[in-house]
Every structure is written in structure tokens, then in C-alpha cells.
Amino acid sequence: MTVTTPARTVTSSRARTARLLAVELLPPFVVALLILPFVIAHGKFWPWQPSTIDLQVYVYAVKDMLAGKDIFATTTPFWNLYFIYPPIAAVLMVPLAFGPYILWQLVWTFLLVLAQQSVLRRCGVPRGWKLGLIGVAVVVAMEPIRTTLGYGQVNTLLMALVVADLLPDAPGERRRIPQGTLIGLAAAIKLTPALFVLFAFSIGKVRTAVTATISFAVFTGIGAIFLWRETLTFWFGLSGGDTRTASPLYTGNQSLLGVFFRLGDSSRTTTLLGLAVAGIVALLAVVVASYWWRRGEKVFAVALVGLATCLASPLSWTHHYVWILPMAVAVFRTRLPRWVRVLAGFWVVWVSVCLPLALLPYGGNRERTYTFGQQLVANLGPMLGVVLVVGLAWGVISQSRSRLRAVQAAA
Fold it and tell me: Which domain holds residue 342?
């Protein structure tokens, strides 16, 4: 007779968990390592030297910070890129200053894959080999995910923080930290996730919203303690639009402000109008998403707010649209109206293929010479988002009117 001891049971459980994680993580991680040198220009497959230029920015900024230099004066060799994140981001990235760069390329790639798989799992994708295979498909086929890996960006990591706060791994899952903490952390690193604070309020999660606000303030305060001068520089310079990156006109900027710049001009009036429209669309998306959250379509609601942050931000490069990942899951796994699934599905495909950068000339103000067809390709993505949000809002209004008429008729 075999007696199963508690210790043996724990060991067996850990072994099963390890095998499960290996099946889910190793396939997309290996594929990511294989394609990484080919994603961004000037990468090499052998010796393995992917051109993770944003990760390089983080490493250089952290090393300059530890040397007492101004992180916002840091530039990288060849690409001459600046560090443009809030100071707390540099503080949290201190480990990047130690060890060989190739080690951090491997670790960072693994963390991005882990974040991607975490999002898929929390959105309801079945665990095991299916999750692993879908992860491979995502790495290969979705441009925002693929180029986030290629650049060594933070986009997928921030999305995973927000999703972990709003979509627990299982119903009734016990949280180790207060809900809202991770949203606040994501917003402190990159301001756009702050829209989820409004979303939390709108769905009645007041404690989550308050916790997120406190978390944001605490992490921002930590950055200020270590880097007071840089904190002032960020809040009174970089966050106000002086990002030292490409102009909103650039085709790769798929925000609504980019659409206004390409279809109009770069004047202050156009800028203010574009930002105002973007803000209205973002708020409308929050209202619509809260409606669908209450109807049980939580993945769709979170994805819609995430994509609204991309529409509303003055600069949203194509690789910022990682929120297309949970939207893709929502399209296949929800009971949304058919027109919503078709339109959202087309948006997913459009963003994943990334035709604006694949087909159009860009840079050097070439966008000013676009034909009608080129303007359509350059701006269709954000416009699809606007049509989806406005259409959903009209649907909510129509249903509210129908209910009101029914109540009045019954009275």
C-alpha cells in the first residue's frame, strides 16, 4: 500500500505546475528569441545581437542615474534616443545596470512573453498547450506585440499589470496586494494607464480607484525622492508634450492627434482640437466599457479602455497598441453583437498587419504629400476605433430609450 505524504503531494503539484508553465512559456519564448534579430533594423542573428534599442535606452539611463548624471540628457549610441519616462521608471529599472547586456535582452524578452501569456490566461484562453500555441501565433502575427519584443519596450508589461488588477486568474482569487496598486504603478511608469482609474470609478470599484490613485502618488513620490530635479523636468516639460521624439505627424503615430495632424496642419488650434476630440472619445469609451463590464463582458471592457488610451495619447506608436491582444480574445470569446465583433475583429487584423508602416513613405514631412488613398491607410486604424466607440455609445443610448419607453408604456 502506497502512502501519499503531504510533502510528496506538494512536490508532485510543483512538478505539474513547472511542466504546465514550460508548455505555456517556452514555445513563444523560443520563437521570440529566433525572430528578435529580424524585427528591428541592424539586428544580427549570428552572433545573436537583436537591435533592442529601447531597452538600450533604459540601460544607459539607469547607468547615468547611478553615476549622478541627468537621465533626461542620456542619449544612446547610433540611434541618439532619449529616456522620456517618469523618474520612477528609472529607479525601478536599477537592476539593468548590472550584468551583461545580452543577459538583460534574454531576461527582458522572457518577461514580455510572461506578461503576454499572463494576459491571455486572465482573458480566458485555456491553459496548457493551447495557450503555448496561441502565444506563438501572437508573437509572430501581432505587430504591436512583436515590435514591443523587438524594441525591448515596456508596453506588454504595463498591460499585464492593469489586467492582473482587473481580471483575476480565477473567480474569487485571493489577492496578495490591494486591488488598484498595479494600475497605479503602471500609470506612474507611463501616464496613459491612468484612464483605468476613471474606469474603476465608473464600474463602482471606488476602493480600487482610490488605491490606484494612492499607488500612483506613492510611486511618483519615490521617484521624486531619488530624482527631484528630474521629476520637475518631467512634469513641467516632457509630460507637457516636449517628448523629443518624432512629431505627431509621423505615420507610425496612430493616435487621434496624429490623424488631425495628417489631415490638417500642425498649428496650436489643430493640436487643441485634436486633443479635445481624443479626450471626449476616451471618456466615451470609459462609459461604454462600464456598461459592457456590468453585462459580464469584462475582457472586452478592459480591452476597449486600453485601446482608448492609445487613441487619446498625443503619441501612440504602432507598438503601443498591445491592447489589441485582449480585444482579439474578446472578439472570439464573447456574446457581443455581431457588428461589434466584425468591426472590432477588423480593427484587430488591421493593427496586427500594420499597413501604414508597411506601405507608406514616412519621415521628412512626406505625410503632407499623401494622396487620398494613402491618407486612408495612414488613418484608418484610429478611425475604426472612433467608429467602434461611437457605435457602442449609440447602442447604449438606443437601449436606454427603449427601456424608458417600455416603462412609460407600462405606467
Answer: 245-411
